[in-house]
């Protein structure tokens, strides 16, 4: 009987963690997905994460009375921290002569975003901006809602080649108060924040920004695809994987990592002793993707209230139904299935303790 129970547990773990490269066994013996968002570490979990958020993005565009709203795609970038190489992307794009004196081609892609003079580049400023980018977005969100109370958003934070975050956000505003794209862009750009770590340091967006209106029944699907593609990109490792990358690329990444290691992540942070992951993420503490939440007075981004918690519950219910169908009416009741959200709750403890996999 015990052997059968163990076999059943292993089988259940295999169903829940199917495709996961590193399923985790918690202290209570429950098997869960690793939950990694990095493709190179677990393509299955990263793809599940991307698909979940893509579904939430679609829900806020297509699942409600879309004719009552206007939609915008807003892009905000970081300020300059020094001159970088200008390299065109594939497709015949031409960017002109670079500040280094060379007109690069697409074959020089490895140099895209690499500083021309690393000694003069503000690495400390860049990682500090990444650290405070979440605070800046919060101030931006407040600034926009002060003017348009019905505003809801879905935001993806993407890494630029130089190793700094920029923002793509779908904005939804009720038609009766909807602004022009230019007015919305200028309102977002006018937002600033004061760093809570480096007293008196002003945090603001870069000059490059764009805001385009789109129709849900026109370019809605294309816009969702664009954000999904951006999300697919940020699920990759930030570091360059190619062994053929120019030496300047590696120097740039080492300098960024060193600056993040030296940076304070909080007022009382002692960088040499701090284990916060911010020091390993080029300063970034923000979530890759998020959406406005439903409250008593707001619909939130998703018209139907779709969240990742709801998606996990629906998957769990589907699993339970499938297990009941396979077991039949005469089979003994199965123990509760592993809950995916247990991985998120216990990941820090497991990392410190180490885990095993079937």
List its salient traits:
358 residues; alpha+beta; two-stranded antiparallel sheet; 8 helices; 9 strands
Describe the structure in brief.
The protein is an alpha+beta fold and 358 residues long. It contains 8 helices and 9 strands.
Structure description:
The protein has 358 residues and is of the alpha+beta class. The protein folds into 2 domains: 1-34 and 308-358, no CATH class; 36-81 and 122-306, no CATH class. Helix content is 37%, strand content 13%. It contains 8 helices and 9 strands. Strands 8-3-5-4-9 form a 5-stranded antiparallel β-sheet. A hairpin with a 5-residue loop joins strand 1 and strand 2 (31-32). 30% of the residues are buried.
Instruction: Give the uncertain stretches in residue-range form.
Output: 237-241, 334-358
Average pLDDT: 79
> What would you call the shape?
globular
The share of residues in helices is: 25-40%
Write the topology of this structure.
Layout: H1 2-16, E1 24-25, E2 31-32, H2 43-62, E3 69-76, H3 123-147, E4 152-159, E5 165-174, H4 181-189, E6 192-194, E7 202-204, E8 209-214, H5 220-234, H6 247-262, E9 289-291, H7 308-327, H8 341-353
Antiparallel strand pairs: 1-2, 3-5, 3-8, 4-5, 4-9, 6-7
């Amino acid at each position: 009987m015990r052997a059968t129970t163990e076999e059943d547990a292993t089988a259940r773990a295999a169903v829940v963690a199917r495709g996961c490269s590193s399923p985790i066994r918690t202290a209570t013996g429950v098997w869960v997905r690793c939950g990694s968002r990095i493709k190179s570490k677990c393509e299955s979990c990263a793809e599940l994460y991307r698909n979940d958020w893509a579904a939430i993005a679609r829900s806020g565009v297509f699942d409600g009375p879309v004719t009552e709203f206007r939609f915008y795609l807003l892009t905000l970038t970081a300020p300059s921290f020094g001159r970088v190489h200008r390299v065109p992307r594939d497709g015949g794009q031409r960017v002109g002569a670079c500040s280094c004196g060379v007109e690069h081609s697409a074959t020089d892609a490895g140099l895209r975003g690499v500083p021309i003079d690393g000694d003069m580049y503000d690495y400390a400023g860049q990682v500090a901006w990444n650290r405070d980018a979440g605070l800046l977005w919060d101030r931006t969100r407040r600034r926009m809602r002060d003017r348009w109370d019905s505003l809801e958003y879905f935001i993806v934070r993407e890494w630029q080649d130089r190793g700094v975050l920029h923002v793509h956000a779908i904005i939804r505003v009720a038609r009766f108060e909807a602004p022009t794209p230019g007015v919305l862009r200028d309102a977002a750009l006018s937002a600033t924040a004061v760093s809570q770590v480096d007293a008196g340091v002003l945090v603001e967006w870069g000059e490059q920004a764009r805001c385009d209106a789109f129709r849900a029944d026109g370019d809605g699907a294309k816009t969702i695809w664009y954000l999904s593609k951006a999300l697919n990109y940020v699920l990759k490792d930030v570091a360059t994987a190619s062994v053929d990358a120019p030496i300047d690329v590696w120097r740039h990444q080492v300098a960024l990592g060193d600056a993040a290691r030296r940076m304070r992540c909080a007022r009382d942070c002692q960088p040499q002793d701090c284990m916060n992951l911010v020091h390993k993420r080029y300063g970034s503490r923000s979530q890759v993707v998020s959406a406005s939440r439903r409250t008593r007075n707001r619909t939130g981004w998703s018209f139907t209230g779709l969240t990742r918690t709801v998606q996990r519950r629906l998957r769990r219910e589907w699993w339970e139904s499938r297990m009941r169908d396979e077991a039949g009416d005469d089979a003994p009741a199965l123990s509760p299935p592993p809950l995916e959200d247990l991985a998120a709750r216990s990941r820090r403890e497991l990392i410190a303790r180490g885990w095993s996999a079937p």
